[in-house]
Amino acid sequence: MIPAAFDYTRVGSVDEAVQALGQHGEDAKVLAGGHSLIPLLRLRLAFPSVLVDVGRVDEMRGVRDDGDHLVIGAATTHDEVMHDDLVRQHCPVISDVVSQVGDPQVRHRGTFGGGIAHGDPAGDLPALALALDATFVIAGSGGRRDVAASDFFVDYLQTVLGAEDVLVEIKVPKLGSDWGHNYQKFNRVAQAWAIVGSLALVRRSDGSIDEARIGLTHMGSVPLRASATEQALAGASTDVIADACDQAAEGTSPPEDLNARADYRQHLARVLTRRAVEHALGG
Amino acid sequence: MTDTATPATGGIGDAPVRKEDAKLVTGQTTWTDNIAFPGMTYMAVLRSPMAHAKINSVDVSAALEQPGVLAAFSGADLADEWAGPLPCAWPVTPDMVHPDHWPIAKDEARYVGDAVAVVVARDRFAAADALEHIAVDYEPLDAVVDMEAAIADGAALVHGDHGTNTTYTWPFSNGDVDEAFNGAHKVVTRRFINQRLIPNAIEPRAVVVAPIAAANEFTMYTATQVPHILRLMLALTTGVPESKLRVIAPDVGGGFGSKLNVYAEELMALVLAKRLGRPIKWTETRSEGYQTTIHGRDQIQDVEAAFDEDGRLRGLRVKLLADMGAYLQLVTPGIPILGALMYPAIYKMDAYDFSCTGVFTNKTPTDAYRGAGRPEATYAIERTMDEAAVELGMDPMDLRRRNWITHEEFPFTTIAGMTYDSGNYEAATDKAMELFDYDGMRAEQQRRREAGDRYQLGIGISTYTEACGIAPSRVLGSLDYGAGGWEHATVRMLPSGKVEVVTGLSPHGQGHETTFSQIVADTLGVPFEDVEILHGDTKVAPQGLDTYGSRSLAVGGIAIYKATQRMLDKLKTAAAHMLEASPDDLEFSGGQFSVQGSPDTAMALGNVVLGVFAAHDLPDGYEPTLSAEFTFDPENFSFPHGTHLCAVEVDTETGMPQITKYVAVDDVGNVINPQIVDGQVHGGLAQGIAQALYEEAVYDDAGNLTTGSIVDYYVPGAPDLPEYTTDRTVTPATSNPLGVKGVGEAGTIASTPAVVNAVLDAVRHLGVTDLDMPCSPERVWRALQEGSASRDQVAAQAQGGQHA
Hints:
The structure holds two protein chains of two kinds. Chain A contains twelve helices and 14 strands. Chain A is α+β, with helices and mostly antiparallel strands. Chain A folds into three domains: 47 residues, Uridine Diphospho-n-acetylenolpyruvylglucosamine Reductase, domain 2 (2-Layer Sandwich), CATH 3.30.43; 111 residues, Uridine Diphospho-n-acetylenolpyruvylglucosamine Reductase, domain 3, CATH 3.30.465.10; 102 residues, CO dehydrogenase flavoprotein, C-terminal domain (Enolase-like, domain 1, 2-Layer Sandwich). Chain A has a five-stranded antiparallel sheet with strand order 4-5-10-6-7. Chain A has a four-stranded antiparallel sheet with strand order 11-12-13-14. Chain A is globular, with a radius of gyration of 19 Å. Chain B has three domains: 193 residues, Aldehyde oxidase/xanthine dehydrogenase, a/b hammerhead (Aldehyde Oxidoreductase, domain 3, Alpha-Beta Complex); 343 residues, 2-Layer Sandwich (Aldehyde Oxidoreductase, domain 4), CATH 3.30.365; 147 residues, Aldehyde oxidase/xanthine dehydrogenase, molybdopterin binding domain (Aldehyde Oxidoreductase, domain 4), CATH 3.30.365. Chain B has a seven-stranded mixed sheet, with helices on both faces. A five-stranded mixed sheet of chain B has the order 7-15-14-13-8. Classes of the chains: A alpha+beta, B alpha+beta.
């Protein structure tokens, strides 16, 4: 398809981006890798009059060490994140999940922040950010603010990002070596969105589970945590995994499409969560 | 398996690097969309968003006001431009209902995507934007989407003035069918849904028309498989004389049948270029192509097979409903008929009864898609054989062995009247079973069943044959096809000893330049690199019937071979004169003519060529032009066959099927280039597996294409497909001098039933008795849920079957 006409401006800093967005308001959209926005434009489902390209804003690119956190620039490409040494050392789950986003071409253009800011519950990164308890640094006309991942996703393709906001960077905790992880992405062809995904982050101690954080992809209008399963696993022995994971779909109202009706998605969430937890524990 | 031991020198049987590859991998190709002319204009088409609607009015005036817009027309505006409607060249019955199909709908839109208006602008963006300024007053009409609903009493009519949604019913019967069924020990009855597919050539359709207005001459560049057929049809539909039309198929990026057609946009581009006197370009977008490029398959197949107690097949009844979509495209009605005579496949039987009813629905027209009728037939019969084996309590391969034509019985005329010239099903099957480790896999399957493994193993069989090399003109005539099937070739020697070969075929990815160069190089003893294959331009190659139906080598390749032989004869006459010998005493080998018995009296082919070019001393009456032609029209189709074995693991928790092993042993006769044959088989397998596991065009009840983009329509890629083990047996065809058969469609035809048979075999013991394609994880999972309820009952039946 061919998009409607739009203007294009490339900004060199976050301040310039905020300024440009302030000037155009609702008519402007932030462009980074374009892998979510361009298809919407081509399908004429979005009609911004101006695109503000943040793809070359240096302060939004790269990964830096910030004590007990890593800070990932929102415009860092998936491929850069996936191969980043700090990420691999301190938060290898990110590298693993990002390696399953799209295909190599998508990962070379698409950005880590873009995959989150789009707010698509079928994307892999929102559930990752949620499970990591990531913090999003957002720049707007009123300055910068931090938003917890649990407060960020509002509804299908909707986040707390306002028309004049830019997602600048994402803070994630460094995870110690006692954390295991596994992402079970269920899809029919490699490049497709997950029909359901379940990400398990599990902290072990002496044969039992200290803490489990489970993020669910494509199980509702926003990414979800499998809270009932997390509670059932916390401090429990590994014997309870099957029972705990049977609660993984509790409270979800998953979407229906050609690949899955709701009951199948819920079934998959239970099975995939169990597998993810078992693998995260080294099973 | 590529025979890597073969030296890559470029003769018959070698695997030289494809001549086509260097330009393809370096991007130095000329796709239609790359073609630029000064003053180019761009066409965009407004399409109906409704599956069925009366068009009360179309107002293009606001579009004309948009910047860059040069012209805009409704269907009514252009009604006088057409000398005739879009062609359907295959009236399968004398009373076939054949409604007019205009390039732009005039008063009624009949599927989502039907053209309603057209815009020409200075760039493609202005053209696309202008479409939003065309006002169309649609009056919604009832849409009919489902085939069975379409033929029910009181159904809404796709073409109201024809009074029916039934296009035709085509019957065939041979033998005493009632007797075959009445005396049967077991009748196996199944319904198969051969779902609608969307072809996905990597290059979308595109067309450029460059007019020379003063001379009323037009050159059309188009992403087509059929420049020759298209030129004739353009003349018939637009009134531009055929002699004033040049059609060029430049580099074309795949077709699979989707570019074997005459499309509305090609006609519009020609007529608008004529009207505006400007070059014009149109390139479809992928989602536009999903709505408007022909679809494939879409049949409901009711099959009954009658067996004796010992598993002998007595007779077969097949009843089809075939979805035409909203209109008849070039060969739409004939597609199921191409399969009609292949349901008996490799099996002997006493009686066969077939009928096919073509049905109109408010959907995109269907037409030829890789295999065209034969994949559907093969799917039905090979699924039926596995189902029958279950009901008879026999091993599915043993059941096939009891019924297939043995190699001593060729040539064999089937119950459908097809005469198979050659074949050896035993040899291909033995080889496939060995490569697959059939017994070992059955043992592993049993082990997993007994262990209740989460991953259950299934083994699927397809012992297929097919009829291809679409040619025998007499046979095509007997099936009421609107043209013949011959193919033409010209071979020219250049003074420098290089060879130019002109073929009427029109390759679009098959590697013709490589394969045909090998044939010519081998025959003339010249280097492979010295042969140039010219094609795809009606001015360069004026005679031809183009590329489809696995016809290129077995028809066009033979024309080239025979024309090359004629060239050699002509050179021999000249060489004999130059060597002062009788032509009968001359030998030709290694590119050299020599006199028998005196090997020193010899002359290289190049020197003979130069001598003829100089024409200083030639035999009396010898014409000094080195050009030889041949038109080949074989007596029969070619009948490739083979045995495909597929192992599928089903994750019983999620329903996900995964192919873990795939063995394809194909018999395509003699092989010119083993690497190209392997490539054809690999690609064919991918498309056949895609139908089994991934692809399905889904419409909602209102006739909207739900799988309207490549995001929703699952085309598998390399990561999704298994490793293939391919091998061959060689039983030469007797219908052509090279002993070759077609290979382009074989993999697609063979693989679909092998995969579905394997999926079912993995879960049948868990109570699953049927699965529709594609076997998506959700479908398999739901079948497992339902199956578990009745598992005990089914197990008891299977037990009973084994004792029967």
